[in-house]
Amino acid sequence: MRIISNSYIKTKLKRLQQIESYTIGESTETLARRLGLLPAEIVKLNFNENLFLPKKNLAEIIKLVADECDLRIYPQEEQNKLKESISNQLKVPFDSIVVGNASDELIDRISRLFLEKGEIAVSITPTFPVFKYCAKRQGANYLTIPLLDDFQLNIKQLLASFSNKTSLLYLCSPNNPTGNQFNKTEIETLINKFPGIVMLDEAYAEYAEYSLVSKVNDFENLIILRTFSKAFGLAALRLGYALTNSTLTNILTEKSPLPFPVSSFTLNMGQKLLENFSIVSKSVEELKMEREKLIKKLNQINGIKAFNSQANFVLFAADKPYELVYQALLNKGLLIKKIGKISHLDNCLRTTVGLPWMNEKLIETLKKIFR
Ligand SMILES: Cc1ncc(COP(=O)(O)O)c(C=O)c1O
Q1: Residue 104 C-alpha to ligand 1 middle, in angstroms?
Q2: Axis crossing angle, helix 356-369 with helix 277-299, rounded to the nearest 10
Q3: What are all long-range contacts of 336-345, with beta carbons under 8 Å and residues at least 24 apart?
Q4: Distance, CA 49 to ligand 1 centroid (Å)?
Q5: Which of 88, 221, 331, 366 has its Cβ near the most Cβ atoms within 10 Å?
Q6: Residue 6: pLDDT above 80?
């Protein structure tokens, strides 16, 4: 290999190497190999995917879309069709919708557009880590305000943190990893008082009590994010959208770093799934029922405290080291998410609400670990 002597490149590479980024972790296949299990023996409950939406329903829709799609042509009209369907479904104006390559890309796009070096991004802790990575990559300062002990917003501290340097506020409700939805009036107060753009990530809204989508045109500074990765079961395809007022819609669309962020195939899949929304809503109702059962059963285990959730996952605190609980579950092929300390709770873990047999296996294994 040629030795790089140019100090500019060296400094640049060093800076890039130091940027923190989201680590996806091992694939199910690699993990299974490491544990000496078959991939099918791994119960994957770490990414909040929707396992209730039958794969066979999606396969049928894929066939329809494959017949209709002309993959030789760049996407154009497909985006408008999807936007029309979203507009009808959520009763929001067509020109308030911006389609993107799932929420992650939209979080990145919003951060690039609205955050500059030296500015401050405000958020809460704990929350979805991608906010921090996107803010830091912009060279912005990432300021977090811890949630209160009941996981609600610390409104006083949040308001006190706002200044003429705070240009982006990242909120997530229902919040990942706590699973609760924040008080609606408090969110509206923050939007009203924040001097910059408020990005409200509603990735789990379909599982929750309310959404702020009907308010997108009430504010100059609100952008709501929604995704097809959770309730719509299309995590593999990468599809999401932002909802905002028409001025911000134009900026997010026209100033997008990429002219064609989403493929025609993906756009058509989203649109067809909206046409067949009953499949999605059925899976959401099933999951919500399982969620309540899971929380109840977790709380029956001595040494575990599970929290209510308005999302498709459940946070629980253990009275044993979380690493130990995580590893003991993993040894039995159960993959959940390590969270660690949240305020006074030292040992938190998060599990996706799985299919009934998966939750059963999780509960039985936890019972043995906590016996
Ligand atoms: C709060 C939140 N936002 C966004 C995402 C990423 O979603 P997408 O697949 O749409 O990029 C996740 C994924 O877990 C999430 O929890």
Answers
A1: 6
A2: 20
A3: 336/45, 336/46, 336/362, 337/45, 337/46, 337/47, 337/177, 337/313, 339/126, 339/177, 339/315, 342/126, 342/147, 342/151, 342/177, 342/178, 342/315, 342/317, 343/146, 343/147, 343/149, 344/149, 345/305, 345/317
A4: 10
A5: 366
A6: no
Whole-number Cα distances in Å, 19 to 14, 26, 179, 189: 9, 20, 28, 33
Count of the separate structural domains present in the chain: 2
Question: What pTM was estimated for this model as a whole?
Answer: 0.95
pLDDT greater than 90 at residue 151: yes
Number of alpha carbons in the 13 Å side-chain half-sphere of residue 57: 18
Contact 97, 87 (CB under 8 A): yes
Ligand 1 midpoint to CA 7 (Å): 38
- Same domain for 250 and 285, yes or no, is no
Residues 293-318 pLDDT 10s: 999 999 999 999 999 999 999 999 99
Which residue owns the Cα nearest ligand 1 atom 2? 203
pLDDT greater than 90 at residue 3: no
Residue 201's alpha-carbon distances to 84, 94, 217, in angstroms, are 21, 20, 17
Shortest CA distance to 31 belongs to which of 371, 349, 331? 331
Q: At 213, which CATH number?
A: 3.40.640.10
**Do both 170 and 284 map to the same domain?**
no
Number of residues written out for the chain: 371
| Cα–Cα distance, 220 to 121 (Å, whole number) | 18
Q: Are 131 and 104 in contact, with CB atoms under 8 Å apart?
A: no
* Residue 106 shares a structural domain with residue 150: yes
Give the number of the atom of ligand 1 that is nearest the alpha carbon of residue 107.
4
| Residue where one domain finishes, among candidates 220, 253, 275 | 275
Residue to mutate (ligand 1; options 230, 269, 351; most atoms within 8 A of CB): 230
53 SS3 class: coil
CA distance 356 to 297: 12
Say which CATH number the domain at 331 has: 3.90.1150.10
Ligand 1 atom nearest the C-alpha of 227 is 10
